[in-house]
Amino acid sequence: MRSREYGPDLTPPWKRQQPAPEVPAERDLVVEEAASGFCGAVVRCERTAEGFTVTLEDRLGKHRVFPLVPRGFLLEGRVVTLVRPAGPAPAKGPGRTASGSVAVPGARARVARESRIYVEGRHDAELVERVWGDDLRIEGVVVEYLEGIDDLPAVVADFAPGPGRRLGVLVDHLLPGTKEHRIAARVTGAAVLVVGHPYIDVWQAVKPSSVGIPGWPDVPYEEEWKEGVCRRLGWPVDTPAAWKRILAKVDSYKDLEPALLAKVEELIDFVTAEE
Prior knowledge:
Distance between the termini: 89 Å
Strand content: 15-25%
Strand order of the largest sheet: 1-7-6-2-3-4-5
Shape: globular
Structural class: alpha/beta
Radius of gyration: 23 Å
Mean pLDDT: 83
Order of helices and strands: EEEEEEEEHEHEHEHHHH
């Protein structure tokens, strides 16, 4: 006689492996492949001859493809089963872009304007693309990054702003009396608008609640800010991986602080205004 407490394979209930939670393989989700230890952000999920696979990109830009198998990945240390993301739900009304604008289905990207928006660094550019990318393509506005603003006067001179060729610049930590404020004052003019937010780095413009932390920690001035943030949050001191983790939590303008939202909208209005 077989006990009702045992399955057909005679495995006792307390030894049976529990199913892992299913997690959609959304783009930019950072996971670790359990067998190889390869850690990276989801780039795409697709059907192949061997079944569904997921492509991960590590912090060095290396891509690897893995099958979507049960209990095949770790998410923040927990075993999970990655599954295909659900398709978009049917729209019941006018759709919205990530910035909150009314979406224009089927709209093609406009030919790029001569006007441009410059931001300080790559992270700023990726965040702007994440939230305002659809709007910028329709308006034909290209976003470029500077890697700091020390050379901004030379950059502006080389750009040669003028009628129909406006330049908008977004600066981190733009406060009166700072070096950034003095540089901005030197280049601002009829065809150049420099605006800024009060945050040390654009990371702080992402709401802590969206990232899942109580707040952005205070880091002493003499310590590199991003590394200090990672240490105080208990994250590996790996700023590219930390940024991917933060950016993955941004789905729309609702995840950003109003101080950044207002400035980016101001720049878009400026570079798209009719002369």
